[in-house]
Write a structure and sequence with these properties.
Strand 1 and strand 2 form a beta hairpin. The chain has a domain of about 60 residues. By secondary structure, the protein is α+β, with helices and mostly antiparallel strands. The protein is about 15% helix and about 25% strand. It has a 5-stranded mixed beta sheet with strand order 2-1-7-3-5. Strands 4-6 form a two-stranded antiparallel sheet. About 25% of the residues are buried.
């Protein structure tokens, strides 16, 4: 399983593990990613899933409204990968 990030200065692929959230994988690889609650409530870590599928398992993405979900936004803090290849659009944080 692999993960590609768009709009990032660090090209390449990350190895995904079905038992780790996307946020855990990103942070372990050294990618700066905003997070706060780590349980899907605040929405700070939201990003767009371009390719692939996820499962929230036991959590609900309460940090996203229906419009955001319809636009393809996900919460990496509670999202587990369920496809072999994934691509995320990285957030553009203000400096």
């Amino acid at each position: 399983m692999s993960l590609q990030l768009s709009q990032t200065p660090q090209p390449g692929e990350l190895q995904l593990h079905p038992e780790r959230t996307l946020l855990q994988t990103l942070q372990q690889a050294g990618h700066p990613w905003r997070e706060a609650c780590r349980n899907g409530v605040c929405g700070i870590c939201a990003c767009k899933l371009l390719v692939g599928t996820i499962d929230y398992k036991t959590h609900l993405p309460r940090g996203l409204n229906q419009l955001e979900l319809d636009e393809g936004l996900i919460l990496p803090c509670i999202a587990y990968p369920t496809s072999q290849h994934m691509q995320l659009d990285t957030p553009r944080y203000p400096k």
